[in-house]
């Protein structure tokens, strides 16, 4: 089931299990993983987004490997908070993922997540190619951390 509200999402979470954060792009999806206490989000990997069925199969493997019980997808609203075409595509993608994985999925405002995730890499002197590879998983971690910081999803 797709959720737009953090409280309704938190209400359906099982007591145990990790949460995956997703930064959905046209070419790939950055993935982050919460710790078991749902306190800290860490960048995990990036999956290519070629065919939907293949993507779901690869995501299912990640879900099983890490015992994930829910998804949080970044929701790219416009700067003024309205939903544009990219947000609509992401919402539809997240809804379909929720159905295919049978996991609850929260769409979470991700405005400025990529730039916020890149800041520490730039300030740390990380090279451009390395930043590009890490960007999507870092953005997914930033998105997921926002949800974890609410404290509402902790076991």
Counted by DSSP, the helix tally is: 5
Strand arrangement across the biggest beta sheet: 1-6-5-2-3-4
Taken in chain order, the helices and strands follow as EHEEEHEHEHH
| Spatial shape | globular
Determine and state the CATH class. Alpha Beta
Q: How many distinct domains?
A: 1
* CATH-defined superfamily: YqgF/RNase H-like domain
Cα-to-Cα separation, first versus last residue: 20 Å
Query: What's the multimeric state?
Result: single chain
Give a quick precis of the structure:
The chain is of the alpha/beta class and 155 residues long. It has five helices and six strands; from the N terminus they run βαβββαβαβαα.
List keywords for this structure.
155 residues, alpha/beta, Nucleotidyltransferase, domain 5, 6-stranded mixed beta sheet, 5 helices
Structure description:
The chain is an alpha/beta fold and about 160 residues long. The chain has one domain (about 1-150): Nucleotidyltransferase, domain 5. About 45% of the residues lie in helices and about 25% in strands. It has 5 helices and 6 strands. The protein has helices spanning about 5-10, 50-65, 85-100, 115-125, 130-150; strands at about 1-5, 20-25, 30-35, 40-50, 70-75, 105-110. Strands 1-6-5-2-3-4 form a 6-stranded mixed β-sheet, with helices on both faces. Helix 4 (about 115-125) packs across helix 5. The longest helix is centred in the C-terminal third of the chain and has 21 residues, at about 130-150. The mean pLDDT is about 90.
Ordered list of secondary-structure elements with their pairings:
Blueprint: E1 2-3, H1 6-12, E2 18-24, E3 28-34, E4 41-48, H2 52-66, E5 68-75, H3 85-101, E6 105-109, H4 113-123, H5 128-148
Parallel strand pairs: 1-6, 2-5, 5-6
Antiparallel strand pairs: 2-3, 3-4
């Amino acid at each position: 089931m797709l959720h737009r509200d953090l409280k309704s999402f938190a209400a359906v979470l099982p007591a145990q299990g990790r949460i995956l954060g997703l930064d959905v792009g046209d070419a790939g999806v950055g993935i982050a993983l919460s710790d078991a206490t749902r306190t800290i989000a860490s960048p995990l990997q990036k999956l290519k987004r070629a065919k939907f069925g293949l993507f779901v199969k690869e995501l299912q493997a990640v879900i099983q490997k890490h015992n994930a019980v829910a998804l949080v997808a970044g929701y790219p609203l416009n700067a003024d908070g309205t939903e544009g075409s990219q947000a609509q595509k992401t919402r539809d993608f997240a809804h379909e993922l929720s159905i295919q994985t049978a996991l609850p999925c929260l769409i979470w405002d991700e405005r400025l997540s990529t730039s916020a995730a890149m800041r520490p890499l730039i300030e740390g002197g990380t090279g451009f190619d390395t930043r590009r590879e890490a960007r999507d998983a870092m953005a997914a971690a930033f998105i997921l951390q926002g949800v974890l910081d609410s404290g509402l999803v902790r076991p």
